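Anyone? Bumping this.
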Amino acid sequence: MTVERVLPNLDSVIHAQARLRVTVALSVLSPGDKVTFPRLQELVGMSAGNLSTHLRKLEDAGYITITKAYQRRTPVTYVTLTKAGRRAFEDYIAALHDLLATPDHRSGEEAL
Amino acid sequence: MTDESQRSEGPAVIGDEPHLSPEESLALIEAQRGKASRSLYVDPALILGAWGVAWLVGFGAIYLATQGSLGAVMPPWAAGAIAAILFAAATLVSFGEQVRRGRGVQGPSRRIAAMYGWSWLLAFTGLFALDLALEHHGLPADLAPLLWTGSSLVAVGLLYLAGGMLWDDRLQYGLGVWVLVTGAGSVAAGVPGNFEVLSLAGGGGFLVAAAVTRARGWRSERARA
């Protein structure tokens, strides 16, 4: 039943709707740029709780860095894609194209 | 069964997420990339269009107010007011776009954008100091309009060249070259023909650049769909 069994080459950290959205949005930023939590929330259209959950998983995988800074005594949370995260996302896209180029990927899906 | 019902609902649910096929993944990537890009990137067509209108109508009004071949059609104060309002509006549009898009973002790209913004202010501060000093030192009054517009166009042209270099944008670089040519051409034409050159060639150049940018955007949107 798991995606991993059918599509073994896809990174399971990225291959989930919500985390894929977050990864794409962060990849649109220039390398090294970081974005505040509320702005990221706006970019992906997710609730704060939902976004926090998925950010934690991405952080555990080393794909993003979360930093907290203080601006005029107000805590601000910044999120940025790490080099490893950017590379993992590129590999993920390459794996998707590989799967699409494989003629029998559809039959594999039907097994779901 | 649960997978099917979740998929029809659209957005992801925490925990048990709908499975994505490779096609669905790629479609989601394109859609999310488009959404984030539209939110994070300035719209060059909007900025170029605002400046195009300012140059075309603003310099056009000044031309009509001068004793040109058409005779004075408009009082100089009205022409000056129209130009001032349009140039102020274009400045606000450019600045506003940068601020709006850069909201909540920090890092190298914002530093580049900030330095680029300051470059405009610094360039024109230097230009004002230089041109005012030349007037103070007895520059003939009939040469003043040529000095102000000619030197402004050199500054604008160079800053567009810089923008092209910073963002690897050939269109912006090309526009910089066009502005430099227009500046030289306007000074060669002399008063009041210079305002006609600035209005038509300068404003026209910006509007063509805006149209090209828009057309490119449409093409990439269509390619995405």
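Late reply, but here is one note on the structure posted above: Chain B has one domain: 43-224.
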